[in-house]
Design a protein that fits this description.
By secondary structure, the chain is of the alpha+beta class. 29% of the residues lie in helices and 25% in strands. It has three domains: 59 residues, Uridine Diphospho-n-acetylenolpyruvylglucosamine Reductase, domain 2; 113 residues, Uridine Diphospho-n-acetylenolpyruvylglucosamine Reductase, domain 3; 206 residues, Vanillyl-alcohol Oxidase, Chain A, domain 3. The radius of gyration is 22 Å and the shape is globular. The two termini are 30 Å apart. 44% of the residues are buried. The structure holds flavin-adenine dinucleotide.
C-alpha cells in the first residue's frame, strides 16, 4: 500500500481523443494545481509501479496521450507568467491552450502567434509534443518558436532549457513526444498582431505539380487540397496584409459543407461506396470551384473547420518527392476501383529545423495528410488505402506525423531519424524507470 497521498486522483474517468478513435480508462485522473502536487503524483506513481501520461487538449488522432494508469491534465496549470510586448514574447504554463492565447492573452498585448495549423484546441505543452505544423516554405513547425522551456523530470527535479542552458534537451523537448518529462512552462516568440489575406482558387493537380516551387513561393503560407477520384485541387494562399476588411466567402460552402450534408452523404455512401466519387465531384462543384478571398485576424484564417470525426494519417515527405508521391497516389486510386477515398488530401509545406525528433528535422518537407471520415461514428474501411500510403511515404523517405495513426516501429525510426538513438538515450537518462512510456510507446519500442 502506498505511503504517498494520491487521494486527489479521481477513479472512473474515461478519456476520449477528439476524433473518438481512441479511449482510455485511467485508474486515477489528476488535475493538479501546483508543481508540488505534480511531484507528489510522480512519486505516488513510482511507488505504486504505475506509468503516467500528461494529457493536453486530447486532440492527437492516435493513442499517444492514452493510459490506463495515471493520467494528468494540466488544465489548472495555465497561468500567464510573463509578456514582453516589445520583444514579442510570452511565457505561459503548459496547460494554456492555443485558443486562450489567440482569444484572451495575446490580443490585449498586440501580439499574434506566428503560424498555426488547422485548429487551436491544443495546449502549449501538447502542441510542441508531436511536431505540430502549419504551412509556409519559410516557416518551421510550431515549436521552432519556442525560446525556452521548463521541464519536470520523472524524479520531480526541474530543468530549465534554453540555447544557453541544456540546449540539447531543448532541441529534444521541442518535439518531446510525451516521454521526456512534464513540460511546465514555455516561452514563445510571437509577432506583432497581424491580419491575413487568404485567396482560394480551384485548379488542376497537374497544373499545380508542374509549377510546384513557384506555387509554394507565391505566398507566405501556401497549401493545397486535392479531391481524390478527380483532378481537382483548391490552392490556398495566405499573406500578411495591412488591410482590415474584406469578407467575401463562398456562401454555398457555408450552407452545404457545414458538417451535416456531407456527413449524411458519406453515411449513405457506407451502404453504396461507389457514390463517393460522385459526392466528391458534387461538393467540389458547389462548394469549392472558382475563387474566393477574405481577410481576417491571423488565427481565424489559419484555423479551419475540420468538419467531423475522422481517421487520419499524415506524413512528412522530402520536398523534392512531392509530385511523384501525389502522382503515385492518383495512379493507385485509378487502379484500385474497389477503394473509395474521402476528400480532401491535404498538402502543406514546412521548412527544415533542427528539432531532434521533428519530422521536418534537417529537411524541407511536404506534409501530405489523408483522412477517412466516420459519419455518425460509423467505421469506413480505409486500411488498404492507409497502408498503401504509409508504404509509399516510407519508400520516398517520409516520416509519420507523431500524433497521427502510423505503424512504424523503432527499427524503422532508427533509419529515418538520424537522432533517434540520441533522443532515446536522453529519454532514459531523464526517465530511467520508464514512468512516461504508454502503450503507444511500448508498441513502437518492442
Ligand atoms: C481536428 C484536428 C486538427 C489538427 N490539425 C493539425 C494541424 O493542422 N497540424 C498538425 O501538425 N497537427 C494537427 N493536429 C494534431 C495536433 O496538433 C497534435 O495532436 C497535438 O499534439 C495535440 O495537442 P494536445 O494539447 O491536444 O495534446 P495531446 O494530444 O493531449 O497530447 C499529445 C502528446 O503530448 C503529451 N503532452 C501534452 N502536454 C504535455 C506536457 N505539458 N508535458 C509533457 N507531455 C505532454 C501527451 O502525453 C501526448 O504524448 C490536429 C488534430 C485534430 C484533432
Amino acid at each position: 500500500m502506498t505511503s504517498i497521498d494520491i487521494s486527489p486522483g479521481k477513479s472512473g474517468y474515461r478519456f476520449y481523443n477528439w476524433s473518438k478513435t481512441y479511449s482510455a480508462a485511467p485508474e486515477l485522473y489528476f488535475e493538479p494545481r501546483s508543481d508540488k502536487e505534480l511531484r507528489n503524483i510522480l512519486s505516488g506513481a513510482k511507488e505504486n509501479k504505475k506509468t503516467v501520461k500528461i494529457v493536453g487538449g486530447g486532440l492527437s488522432p492516435s493513442d499517444i496521450a492514452c493510459t490506463n494508469d495515471f493520467m494528468i491534465s494540466l488544465k489548472y496549470l495555465n497561468r500567464v507568467l510573463d509578456v514582453d510586448a516589445k520583444r514579442c514574447t510570452v511565457t505561459v504554463e503548459a496547460g494554456v491552450t492555443i485558443n486562450e492565447l489567440n482569444e484572451n492573452i495575446l490580443p490585449s498585448h498586440g501580439l499574434s502567434l506566428i503560424n498555426l495549423g488547422s485548429v487551436s484546441g491544443q495546449t502549449v505543452g501538447g502542441i510542441i509534443g508531436t511536431g505540430t505544423h502549419g504551412s509556409g516554405e519559410k516557416f518551421g513547425s510550431f515549436a521552432t518558436h519556442v525560446l525556452e522551456l521548463v521541464l519536470m523530470k520523472a524524479d520531480g527535479t526541474i530543468l530549465r532549457c534554453s540555447q544557453q542552458e541544456n540546449a540539447e534537451i531543448l532541441s529534444a523537448a521541442c518535439c518531446h513526444l510525451g516521454i521526456l518529462g512534464i513540460i511546465l512552462s514555455v516561452k514563445l516568440q510571437c509577432e506583432a498582431a497581424f491580419m491575413l489575406h487568404e485567396k482560394k482558387a480551384s485548379s488542376k493537380l497537374e497544373t499545380v505539380l508542374i509549377d510546384l516551387n513557384e506555387h509554394v513561393s507565391s505566398a507566405q503560407h501556401f497549401q493545397f487540397v486535392w479531391f481524390p477520384h478527380t483532378d481537382n485541387v483548391v490552392t490556398i494562399a495566405r499573406n500578411r496584409t495591412r488591410r482590415t476588411v474584406l469578407v467575401k466567402n463562398n456562401w454555398l460552402k457555408d450552407i452545404f459543407i457545414g458538417h451535416h450534408l456531407l456527413e449524411f452523404c458519406l453515411w449513405i455512401a457506407t451502404f453504396f461506396p461507389s457514390i463517393v466519387p460522385l459526392i466528391t465531384s458534387v461538393f467540389f462543384k458547389f462548394c469549392y470551384k472558382g475563387s474566393s478571398e477574405c481577410i481576417n485576424r491571423s488565427d481565424k484564417i489559419f484555423n479551419i473547420d475540420c468538419l467531423f470525426k475522422q481517421y487520419v494519417t499524415e506524413w512528412a515527405i522530402p520536398r523534392k518527392h512531392t509530385a511523384i508521391v501525389l502522382r503515385e497516389m492518383k495512379n493507385w486510386i485509378e487502379n484500385n476501383p474497389d477503394c473509395k477515398i474521402h476528400f480532401p488530401v491535404e498538402v502543406r509545406f514546412v521548412q527544415k529545423d533542427n528539432i531532434m525528433m521533428a519530422p521536418s528535422c534537417e529537411q524541407d518537407v511536404t506534409y501530405i495528410g489523408i483522412i477517412s471520415y466516420r459519419p455518425y461514428g460509423k467505421l469506413v474501411p480505409h486500411d488498404k488505402w492507409f497502408t498503401f500510403f504509409e508504404d509509399l511515404a516510407l519508400k520516398y523517405g517520409g516520416r509519420p506525423h507523431w500524433a497521427k495513426d502510423h505503424k512504424v516501429n523503432s527499427q524503422t525510426f532508427q533509419q529515418i531519424y538520424p537522432n533517434f538513438n540520441k533522443f532515446m538515450k536522453l529519454r532514459s537518462e531523464l526517465d530511467p524507470d520508464n514512468l512516461f512510456l504508454n502503450e503507444y510507446w511500448k508498441r513502437i519500442l518492442k
